[in-house]
Write a structure and sequence with these properties.
The chain is mainly beta and 624 residues long. Helix content is 12%, strand content 50%. Strands 29, 30, 31, 32, 33, 34, 35, 36, 37 and 38 form a ten-stranded antiparallel β-sheet that branches. Strands 17-18-19-20-21-22-23-24-25 form a nine-stranded antiparallel β-sheet, covered by helices on one side. The radius of gyration is 53 Å and the shape is elongated. The chain starts with a strand and ends in a 5-residue tail after the last strand.
């Protein structure tokens, strides 16, 4: 016979010498009892079954309808003078029922003494048996070494890290290498990890390390079969000085500190809530923490409409901890629509740190669509001099996110924005005037700046290095716009008609102010001349000249061709460039004049006209 509960176990055999002598042989049976509590329980059942097996008297007795309800397992007492029974006990083994409500139960004798049990005489102690597993000695990692390294990424960004190396394992039972590291000054703050690439014989750890900081590191092998493995001794190294990107390092530093503070707050709050539950149920709550929680709930619900406001306030103090927490949740639900507002404030102080946080979330939900606005403000300080503060604002419309993050830590501070378009605008229209914009243009991040780059609208010489802008750039290149805008004048002229003057007449005049002595002058216009010549075949000329401060700088002859006998016609655009040097700094007047030139003129059908044109003056700040 055997017993089973959680683990199968063979029970000692149970026999009776007197029964074996009566039968003339040993009759054995192998019984399986799957649910017994202990060895004594098993042996007590064995004895009962052995005694029951000796009960051999059986009857099948017809009974009237009054006995119709007998069932298997019932016990009846039977007195029969024929069989010599006086209130003899029988167990109903089965009961045959008839249509006239009579029955014929099958009976087998029972004896209550079969269940008598005396542990002192009936219990057979079982020997204690234990298995000894001969496991191999704990595995030891060989060739373990730690090196502080400097890792250089894109754009020359440097970060400190660790290189852990080891020798190849002696057998194939190793499926991973585990490691742990900690700051030497904070031995209880341990980080860990592992690699399954054992054959690489090394692993690089980058991220979360600070420059010029001492770290302890150890490693061990991991057995595929679960055999024990010993840790190596702690190895201490100091990371090198690296030019980490301030923003990434600072963000990691602040996030790690605040995450640690949030975990401590959550753990302490959970401990306080457990204590409050213990007090509420009357359990023994005598320990180092005293806590009080107040909860209020206002709710109404009808069909698929529900609205609720819940407020929870928790305060707790202990030997080395004090905390306070406040939570408010406002929720409204209608069909597939949900809207909610939640506020969570918490503060905790321990023997080595102080942490506080305030979070709010506004959410609207419809099916698979979500929109939310969340704010998170956190601050932490500890006795190791670690300081961090963070404020984050996130607006999310089904994955379209605009976020702002302000962070400050021991190594500096930063402001970070995240959006599809970043814009700075000033008031002046319903949407404002954008003066600075960052956006994707054809998939490329692009910066757009409007207005003057220099606040006083002048580009002073200290802002440009020597030989940084040449003549070509001033004439046609990137600097031409600045040169033209600051040192040129463009006049749009009305049409001028003067007939055929025999003396010089002004076409247009403009005034500029220079700071050097060299200027370029360009005149653009359409010129029309129609006249008769008294001498056939003789050329006719109209003259145009440029004056600077009343002094002729350059004269141009516009020659016409004869189109018929004694008739001349000139109708085309003209472009007159001139160059003047040696001027003094200050105000100067530029004048364009015209007169009839050489030739014998007639008076009939004569005209001389300049259309609307432009005069442009460029000051040359640097010689070619």
């Amino acid at each position: 016979m055997r017993r089973n509960f959680r683990n199968p176990k063979v029970a000692p055999p149970r026999g009776n010498a007197a029964y074996e002598e009566e039968d003339g042989q040993r009759l054995s049976a192998n019984l399986d009892l799957p649910l017994v509590q202990d060895d004594e329980h098993m042996e007590r059942l064995q004895l009962q079954m052995l005694n029951r097996s000796r009960r051999e008297i059986r009857h099948k007795v017809p009974l009237p309808p009054s006995c119709f309800g007998l069932e298997a397992g019932d016990i009846v007492a039977w007195t029969s003078s024929r069989n010599g029974y006086t209130a003899k006990l029988f167990e109903v083994d089965s009961n045959e029922l008839f249509y006239n409500l009579n029955s014929a139960p099958a009976l087998i004798e029972v004896d209550p003494s079969d269940h008598d049990w005396d542990k002192g005489t009936d219990y057979v102690a079982q020997p204690a048996v234990s298995l000894t597993v001969d496991r191999p000695a704990p595995k030891v990692i060989t060739g373990f070494d730690v090196e502080a390294i400097k890792v250089t990424g894109d754009n020359g960004v440097e970060k400190p890290g660790l290189r852990i190396s080891w020798d190849a394992p002696e057998d194939g039972d190793v499926n991973a290498v585990q490691w742990q590291y900690r700051r030497t000054s904070a031995p209880d703050d341990v980080a860990e990890g592992k690699t399954n690439d054992v054959a690489a014989l090394q692993v690089l750890l980058v991220g979360g390390f600070s420059s010029l900081t001492s770290y302890d590191t150890r490693a061990r092998l991991e057995s595929f079969n679960g055999y024990a493995a010993d840790w190596s001794l702690w190895a201490t190294v100091t990371t090198p000085q690296c030019g980490e990107t301030n923003l990434s390092v600072l963000t990691t530093e602040v996030n790690d500190l605040i995450a640690g503070g949030q975990k401590r707050l959550q753990d302490a709050l959970q401990e306080a809530q457990q204590l409050i539950a213990s007090l509420a149920t009357g359990q023994d709550a005598a320990n180092h923490l005293e806590a009080v929680e107040t909860r209020r709930l206002l709710s109404v619900e009808r069909d698929d409409r529900k609205a609720s406001v819940e407020e929870v306030m928790t305060v707790a103090v202990g030997v080395d901890t004090a905390l306070a927490a406040y939570e408010v949740t406002v929720n409204a639900h209608l069909g597939a629509l949900d809207s909610s507002v939640s506020t969570n404030a918490g503060a905790i102080t321990t023997l080595d740190s102080a942490f506080s946080s305030y979070q709010t979330t506004v959410n609207a939900h419809l099916g698979t669509l979500d929109s939310s606005v969340s704010t998170n403000a956190s601050a932490i300080a500890d006795i190791n001099g670690n300081l961090a503060a963070k404020y984050a604002l996130t607006v999310d419309a089904n994955g379209n996110i605009a976020a702002m993050e302000l962070i400050a830590g021991g190594s500096g501070s930063a402001v970070r924005f995240r959006s599809d378009i970043f814009e700075i605008a000033i008031n002046g229209s319903p949407t404002g005037y954008a003066v600075f914009t960052v956006a994707n243009v054809s998939g490329t991040p692009t910066v757009t700046i409007r207005g003057s780059v220099i606040a006083d609208e002048f580009l002073v010489k200290r802002m440009i290095g020597d030989d940084q802008v040449d003549y070509d750039k001033l004439e046609t290149g990137a600097a031409a716009a600045l040169a033209d805008a600051a040192h040129s004048t463009i006049n749009v002229l009305s049409a001028w008609t003067s007939g055929l003057p025999a003396d010089w007449r002004d076409v247009v005049s403009t005034t500029i102010t220079t700071v050097t002595g060299d200027i370029e002058i360009f005149y653009y216009a359409n010129h029309f001349t129609y006249l008769r010549n008294t001498t056939t075949g003789q050329r006719i000329v109209v003259q145009v000249r440029v004056l600077v401060d009343g002094v002729a700088a350059e004269t141009f002859d516009l020659v016409t061709d004869e189109i018929a006998s004694g008739k001349y016609y000139f109708d085309k655009p003209i472009f007159l460039p001139s160059f003047k040097t040696g001027l003094s700094a200050g105000s100067h007047t530029i004048t364009i004049q015209s007169q009839r030139g050489f030739g014998t003129w007639g008076t009939a059908d004569a005209d001389n006209e300049f259309s609307a044109g432009r005069v442009r003056v460029n000051e040359l700040r640097k010689a070619a």
